[in-house]
Design brief:
Blueprint (H helix, E strand, L loop, with lengths): L7 H12 L3 H22 L3 H18 L8 H25 L11 H11 L1 H8 L2 H12 L4 H8 L3 H22 L11
């Protein structure tokens, strides 16, 4: 199934022609070697589609790198290329088999991620450390997005008190965050 020794010189001439871009030389090389390469690949791999792709990749590689052939036996050089392509294809197949395709669930929105960070992150911990009346004002105005008037109505306190508590709450929250993460200004800006 392998080319005879007398054809080696012809193979070297064909490879030199392929290196110069001669597609007919590539066709002649394919006709001469594809059959035995296919047979050997089939012995190592039972998937005919993989064998066909590896054979095609082998001759694509020959087309691209014929100029690197050192003039030795072309059959051995072709088999090394084909065997490497087969190993690559089998590794890629094994990797694809290992990938678990989990069903895609709904992704949390940016707002949900921020609120979760407020609830369970450093900000949430810091919120728990400030007084309850200040925390209620911050939750109403920052997390729930209520206006000063709406917050005043919700909490049953004057609008001026909401503003005062919001200012105090930010200061206390900043201090609590500074204790949790010294050297950072988690809220930014000035109090």
């Amino acid at each position: 199934m392998r080319p005879s020794g007398g054809e080696r010189d012809d193979d070297a001439a064909l490879l030199r022609a392929v290196a110069r871009g001669d597609t007919e030389a590539l066709g002649a090389l394919y006709d001469r070697h594809a059959g035995w390469l296919h047979t050997r690949l089939t012995r190592r791999c039972t998937d005919p589609e993989t064998v066909r792709e590896v054979l095609q990749d082998t001759f694509v590689t020959v087309w691209r790198s014929a100029g690197t052939h050192r003039g030795g036996e072309a059959g051995g050089w072709l088999w090394v290329i084909a065997a490497r392509r087969l190993v690559d294809a089998q590794r890629a197949g094994a990797r694809a088999d290992r990938v678990v395709h989990a069903p895609a669930g709904p992704m949390p929105s940016a707002e949900e991620r921020v609120l979760a960070g407020l609830e369970y992150g450093d900000v949430g911990t810091a919120l728990d450390r400030i007084s309850p009346e200040l925390r209620e004002v911050l939750r109403a105005t920052v997390i729930d997005g209520l206006t000063t008037r709406e917050t005043a109505r919700l909490l049953g306190i004057p609008e001026g008190t909401v503003k005062t508590r919001a200012l105090r709450a930010r200061r206390e929250l900043r201090a609590a965050l500074a204790q949790l993460a010294p050297g950072t200004d988690a809220l930014g800006g000035t109090a």
